[in-house]
Amino acid sequence: MVEIRFHSLGGQGAVTLINLLAQAGDLVGKKVQAFPFFGAERRGAPVKSYVRMDDKPIDLRSQIYRPDYLVVMAPSLVDAAVGEGTKENTVLLVNMREEEATHLKALPFETYVVDATSIALELGMVVEGMPVLNIVFLGAVSYVTELVPLEAVTEVIRRNIPPGRMESSMEAARLGFTSVRMVREARIRHHREKSAAS
Amino acid sequence: MRLVETGNHVAAWGARLARVEVVSAYPITPQTQVIEEISRFIDEGEMECEYIPVESEHSAMAAMIAAAAMGVRSFSATSAHGLAYMHELLHWAAGIRLPMVMVNVNRALGPGWNIWCDHQDTLAARDTGWIQLYCATHQEILDTVIQAFRISEDPRVVLPVMVCYDAFVMSHTYMQVEIPDQELVDLFLPPFRSLWKLDLDYPLTHGSVIYPDDYEEVRFSMHQAMDNARRVIEEVAEEYREMLGSYHGGLVDTYRMEDADAALVAMGALASECRVVVDVLRERGHRCGLIRVRSYRPFPVAELRELLGSLQAAMVIDRAVSFGLEGPLFSEVKAAVYGHGDLPIFDLITGLGGRDVPYELIAENMEAALRGELAAESRWPSVRLNEHHRLVKRSLEEYWRREGVR
Amino acid sequence: MPRKRKEEREDIGFLTTLSVPSEGSVGKTGTWRTFRPVLDRDRCNKCLLCWIYCPEACISKDLEISYDYCKGCGICAEECPTKAMSMVKEDER
Predict the structure, then answer these.
(1) Cβ separation of C18 and B205 shorter than 8 Å?
(2) Residue A106 domain-assigned (yes or no)
(3) Chain C contacts of B96, Cβ < 8 Å?
(4) What is the rounded CA–CA span in Å between residue B229 and residue B22?
């Protein structure tokens, strides 16, 4: 089983992100589970969301304390996200420009960044002043985790996104997929094959 | 057709496939998505159904009673305070023997105001005469809503049915569900024919006065109907398996009980989590199994006696508390096996108000119980005083000093 | 101690609290009466207040009184604005 924990801010679109990611997992034959932790959500407040994928039915229902992948959609949440629990071979994906990632390099994880905010702004994916990052991250998560191929991502976009936003969404997913940069290498090199298989 | 959907939307699909004719409900977190989705189905012409918007849950159930009394297949959904608010009318619906199905998304009762999961709401409605079925997967929610109409409308039963599932853990979680063909569901669940209904050509009063000479017989009839429901729930689950393929157990669902010498007993999504506990404990050398109570009313007395009879220990997980006694499921499991051996039974009260229950917590406690380190009573294994609690205590002490209260 | 055999229970089937319109489910309540209402048709202005107020629907719209079921409660006499209805002791008719 692969477990992913997302940390985001209300308004960035994480709930849609985990829904679409679960649908993509379904398309490639995985058993899926996706849930946000519902708190006192307001726009701009921290939100945690969780995704599990497995080849067999998923019985676990508790929150994820030792994620295989930790996805942080707002740079301000990195410390809080790590503080919520990781494991030795957790892989980190952060919304950040590569040149700003000095702090991340000090963390003991295989770490990737994607400048999702700039991509969303460039594509005009802004709702009431707030960049919506979910589709960019769908692409980036597809690249980093290799759980779902980009074709599955584009298929769920086709099924879920209204025609008016289709083109920009496809582009956002593609840019999310291609703009990920590794900023710190894995300490344990073989973990990805292992976690994908287990 | 396979969908990736929230538990709430799955419940709405159940109502749609059951060809529900009247829905009367009032929105409350975490149930709201159920009736939003039904409204959308109706608006888009997918469901031929009258949706009655009401100003409260009390009225929602009143409208359900009226609709069911007209011989119409009726459905509602609520949660926690909504269920508490309609409590009186729960007795009315069951007492005048009206078939209907209501989903309750299990949520904690305030205060403290809390929208998250526990089972206090439905367990407090235990003795209203409603059948209560608890689900552990999305597929089970869908299948149980459809099965519930068959159970409720069966002439041997004729009691309302509550289909319960956990707030957020199930209601707002996306998982896969197979949506069966409408034609197959129609074969399984024919149109509703009521035993009686309101009819201008044959006027009746329902819920009228009955005297001490008659009342006990009416209550006894309800009690016998509940007894009959044991058989009907099993039959309906079997028939559903034959016709539609999926099966989630009858009154209970078991996991790895065949060679077990210890068992966990739980309801709802925590019972799903307990499957993981069973696997973990078996890896550590304990022959443990799981009994998931699917039907809380009628209570699976014979099944529990049979399953627990040969064991050495059992541990109940209660997501509710009967203040001044212990966990309610614990009490009832003990009562079921009273006079049948002297099996030690342990209880964990945990997961109240949405407290996350990691499987390790249950595994650790089960191992401690098996090592003989626990007393056979209710424990609250996840209660801890934290910084916030200490702050509240300090502020109160400050206030008491200032006001000379203590 | 030997365990007692479980008692066989009678199956009483489906029973509920329905009632159907019928006359006097507790029999002819007219036998309870001490005072009977008697209408003086000359004083009656046919306002039908007695018809409305009678709790047992014993007075018809034609102002016929069903003495089989009238319990003699006296509400009709109390409500009658012209004092056309009076209560007469049963043994003084």
Answers:
(1) yes
(2) yes
(3) 16-18
(4) 24
Q: Return the residue of B nearest to C26 by Cα.
A: B211
> What range does the domain containing B82 cover?
2-244
Distance from CA of A187 to the nearest CA of B (A): 27
pLDDT tens-digit readout, A118-166:
999 999 999 988 899 999 999 999 999 999 999 999 999 999 999 999 9
What is d(CA A174, CA A153) in angstroms, rounded to the nearest whole number?
9
Given an 8 Å threshold on Cβ–Cβ distance, is B174 in contact with A38?
no
> Do B258 and B230 fall into the same domain?
no
Number of domains, chain B: 2
Q: Are strands A126-127 and A130-131 parallel, antiparallel or unpaired?
A: antiparallel
Q: Is B69 an interface residue toward C (CB < 8 Å)?
A: no
d(CA B400, CA B196): 62
**pTM for this prediction:** 0.92
Query: Which of B188, B216, B244 is the endpoint of a domain?
Result: B244
* Radius of gyration (C-alpha) of chain C in whole angstroms: 22
Across the interface, whether the CB atoms of A35 and B276 are under 8 A apart is answered no
Query: Which residue of C4, C16, C22, C26 to mutate against B (max B Cβ within 10 Å)?
Result: C16
**Residue range of the domain that includes A30:** 2-185
Asked whether residue B260 is domain-assigned, the answer is yes
Task: Return the CATH number at A123.
Answer: 3.40.920.10
Kindly provide the ipTM of the predicted complex, given to two decimals: 0.92
Mean pLDDT by 10 residues, chain A (198 residues): 96 95 98 88 86 97 97 96 96 96 91 97 92 97 98 98 95 98 77 43
Contact flag for A and C (3+ C-beta pairs < 8 Å): no
- Residue B57: closest CA among B97, B103, B15: B103
Tokens 């079925």, residue located: B133
Give the domains, in start order, of chain C with CATH numbers.
29-92 (3.30.70.20)
Whether residues B224 and C11 touch (CB distance < 8 A) is answered with yes
If one counts every other C-beta atom within 10 angstroms of the C-beta of residue B22, the result is: 20
* Chain B contact probe: residue of A28, A61, A155 with most B CBs at under 10 A: A61
Contacts of B101 (CB under 8 A, 6+ apart): B15, B18, B74, B75, B76, B145, B148, B149, B152, B160, B161, B162, B163
Residues B182 and B314 in one domain: no
Q: Does chain B touch chain C (at least 3 C-beta pairs within 8 Å)?
A: yes
- Locate A1 and state its tokens: 């089983």
Helix (H) and strand (E) counts for chain A? 8, 9
